[in-house]
Amino acid sequence: MIRKYETTDTTALVEIWSAANKVAHPFLSDVFVAQVAKDMRDIYLPNAETWVLEFDQKPIGFIALINTEIGGLFLDPEFHGKRLGKALVDHAVKLKGSLSVEVFEKNKVGRRFYDLYGFVEVDRYCHEPTNEISLKLTLVKD
């Protein structure tokens, strides 16, 4: 079931983000990751349009939208490969239509997912806080 984010989800979603982040972003520094974890709780989750995916009434993933941009898509790694990330993006597409997302070039998990979904690279730049290459991807839906 996909439902709207509630503030009581915050701790569970930060834990999901942390576990998924270790899989997708092992190249990020501990200092940067600690700051993002704090910002997830204080800034990102409260200010985005966030949708939570539940299994057995427990959050297992989420998608955070800022207008038509995917600000974050994270799934408990235990549930990777079960088309649940696709279900979250499908939900976002129904709500918003065309979407965009930024993903680190070294994020093999995310890049494979977005490539298979049909996102295409439209730009790339150096993400200054990490000095990593970030790709801007777009999905165009009618």
From TrEMBL:
It holds the Pfam family Acetyltransf_7. GO terms for molecular function: acyltransferase activity, transferring groups other than amino-acyl groups. Gene3D superfamilies: 3.40.630.30. This is Acetyltransferase. It comes from Kiloniella spongiae. PROSITE patterns: GNAT. Residues 1-140 form the N-acetyltransferase domain. Keywords: Acyltransferase, Transferase. SUPFAM superfamilies: Acyl-CoA N-acyltransferases (Nat). The keyword Transcription regulation does not apply.
